[in-house]
User: Fold this.
Amino acid sequence: MTLTVFDFSSLEQHFPPRKILTRKIALEPLLHFLKEVGDPQKHLPPTVHVAGTNGKGSTVAMLRAVYQAQGYKVHVVTSPHLYDITERLVLSNNQVTRKALWNALKEHESLAQKHNLSWYELLIGVSFILASQTPADVMLLEVGLGGEFDATNVIDTPALSLITPISSDHHDFLGNDLETIAQAKAGIIKKGCLCLSSPQIPVVKTVLEKTARKLNSPFYCVSLDKKTAAKPNLLGDHQRDNAQLVLKAVSLLQNKLPVDQEAVENGLQNIVWPGRLERLNQKEGVNLWFDVAHNPASAQAVHDFFIRRSGEKCLLFALLKSKDAKETLKPLVQSFKTLIFFTPKVADGYHSAAVLADISQELGKESNVDMSLKDALKKALLLNPSDILIAGSHYFSAELKDLK
Assistant:
């Protein structure tokens, strides 16, 4: 008996990454692909479409937990994944199997190549196909990058367009100023469809409100109340802000998806969302953590959490070249006594550890450099800190498997 090897990495090599496509990033190729397979994006349950810079994944995880606590069947599409590609798609509360995802990708490989889709676009297209074939009550759809030209934006009439805090990130795709970035993310707002936003800085809020008015879309913005904020089981004050956004979203959708208070409370205490202030385990009596923080806003959230913890803390850090290293490191150098920069196994596209060390020195913080995460962890443990945080990217999470 021959076992099928689901080599997703090799299959991915058959498709161009988004940044080197010869055509302009746009939705038309994916729309043509979807039309040939019956427009599955038009046959989905009520959809909550989520864009923003930080908090998208946590917000989706909270909504999923609440709706599942109510007994609803939930589809979820997120990106990127941490440990396995199947994390990107949940069908009716169940993570897609490797076999089902593989078969769907292989079945549509030729058609995707015909339309010159990127790997990400194919994944989104196949997710819509599989979701349209599986009954569910609600779909939670996370934007991968931006909004207007993200592959998820082929949906026409979301039940709710939900926008988390917008800040600076992905300059190579979205532009260097917040107004331009906000315009890209406002692209998920659809004519006549509800839109809900986290609190935003004035320039961003203006863009969102202007877009909503133009499209005659009811627009709501959450007012955060620290005193009465719900407490999810995810760590960090920023998660309480995300929870308030989720509660408002649930309230706005009560006519389509009724939820009682018990389900809200149970859901917020049973959220599963790894890679966000995730406590991995203890190594030699030291608390070991992981966070995917990779931009200034998420680094600030990490700082706000760890600065309140007693003891000496150590940061193991790597960062993609597409990210603003100096601005991301600014809050982190304040909350960690020791910084050790390392080179991920897949080093292409990352700042060198030496470059990060130079930037840290510019910010007034001496640091150490190691060749690998494994060596960096060994060095950190010798220092006997109270906490060690591994942070900077989704993409070296596979290296954590040996550390857990």
In short: The first strand starts at residue 47 and ends at 51.
